[in-house]
Give the backbone structure.
Amino acid sequence: MQSKPQLLAWLTCDGVHIDPSSGKHTILGVFSNINARHFPVTHPFMVWFLTLTDCAPGQHSMRLSMGLDPTAMKVLLDRPFESQSPLHRINLINEIRNLTFGEPGDYAILVEVNEEPILATNMTVSAA
């Protein structure tokens, strides 16, 4: 029986730098909530960084969805990725641009790999 992909890391940040000589990732500006003076507010740029393991060799798909109502979420990103081995750690850098929040609240975030949920979390957006 094939194992389900496992999530090792999930971070929301301002950016990720990859050192060209070592391949190491430097995570910049980690945050977990957003404060706004007025609504709707548009966050110009953020990165959702995640690390996966236990992915069977071959092509896979990852989908990120978000919404105030967990039963009616909007797909923000749907992307392919490849795994060489279940032993590999796969770092996925997902750039999210111009994400608009209509009102304050706890926005549900769902991460799926091959249409299977691997993370359900939230991001709090509050009035400053």
Observations:
- The first strand starts at residue 6 and ends at 13.
- The chain has a mean pLDDT of 95.
- Strands lie at 6-13, 15-18, 25-28, 33-36, 41-53, 58-67, 74-83, 90-101, 105-113, 116-127.
